[in-house]
Amino acid sequence: MARYDLIERMNRSFSALEIALQQLHQQLHALPLLAARVFSLPEIEKGTEHQPIDKIAVTATVGNNARDLGLRHFQRLFIHHQGQNTSSKAALRLPGVLCFSVTDKQLGQCENIIYQINQLKSELEHIITVESGLPSEQRFEFVHTHLHGLITLNTYRAITPLINPSSVRFGWANKHIIKNIPREEVLIQLNKSLNAGRAVAPFSREQWGELISQEINDVQRLPENTRLKIKRPVKVQPIARVWYQERQKQVQHPCPVPLIAFCQSQSAVELPKLGELTDYDASQIKHKYKPQAKPLHLLVPRLHLYVEKE
């Protein structure tokens, strides 16, 4: 019964999300467009998801066409919304910004629906990744049994509103996700994967069980106070740097989907200056000074799990 309730809540939340996204589309389309600029990136082909990315060609679109591309992008949540040869394991990205003129009342309405959308996105992510109790390798089957073809990465991504920004400029970020993780938490995750009794391609069920058992043994041999870290590389991501002149403040946002800038019609703030997202070329990156990190030993490669050396 508990699993049935979970599935019912997931479906109900997703239906509410689709309705709210359609409402946002209608609200924004009715607003006066001040400026819009989005940057289309090449879609990831099937089978190339894990290949290193050295170059990314960017195609810019402006004006009404950019607005229409951006509004459609917010609703691209399923595999059938993309090309036949496009990977379903890589989320679609469309960095950019859509700028609208709003009254106070219109701003409040838009902020309310965006808040509702982001709450539903967060709720869906929590249901799928936490409440389901499933290890990551089993979530795909769970989601696609009940929401066939859903691309969860697209579904989880929040929509970011900006209020009276002075400028929005774009760039690229290339980094790692680093997280300290207790030894016991790692063992709980590994045992959950082992007890699930399922395999992950290209392993057979027996081979997968042997691999997980070996990983459990490797972690159990560590002293209890061993410092463990997840250090997972993140592929290069588009970012936006937003400047607010009145507050003399800059805020950096990840930008996989268009930002929505609201410019209040009675405000003296000028139309924000919009930058360009240039092509990405890894060979042209100049790294700033980075402090020396503690040396790490790779323990479980598939989890990007490292032991911190003393």
UniProtKB/TrEMBL annotation:
GO MF annotation terms: DNA binding
**What does the UniProt keyword field contain?**
Cytoplasm, DNA replication, DNA-binding
Pfam families recorded: Ter
- Zinc-finger listed as a keyword: no
The cross-references to InterPro entries, in alphabetical order and at most eight, read:
DNA_replication_term_site-bd (IPR008865), Tus_dom1 (IPR036381), Tus_sf (IPR036384)
Tell me one GO biological process term.
DNA replication termination
Top-level taxon of the source organism = Bacteria
Q: Where in the cell is it found?
A: Cytoplasm
An annotated GO cellular component of this protein is: cytoplasm
Function as written in the Swiss-Prot or TrEMBL entry: Trans-acting protein required for termination of DNA replication. Binds to DNA replication terminator sequences (terA to terF) to prevent the passage of replication forks. The termination efficiency will be affected by the affinity of this protein for the terminator sequence.
Family statement drawn from the similarity comment of this UniProt entry: Belongs to the Tus family.
UniProt name for this protein:
DNA replication terminus site-binding protein
Recorded source organism is: Yersinia aldovae
Upper taxonomic classification of the species?
Bacteria, Pseudomonadati, Pseudomonadota, Gammaproteobacteria, Enterobacterales
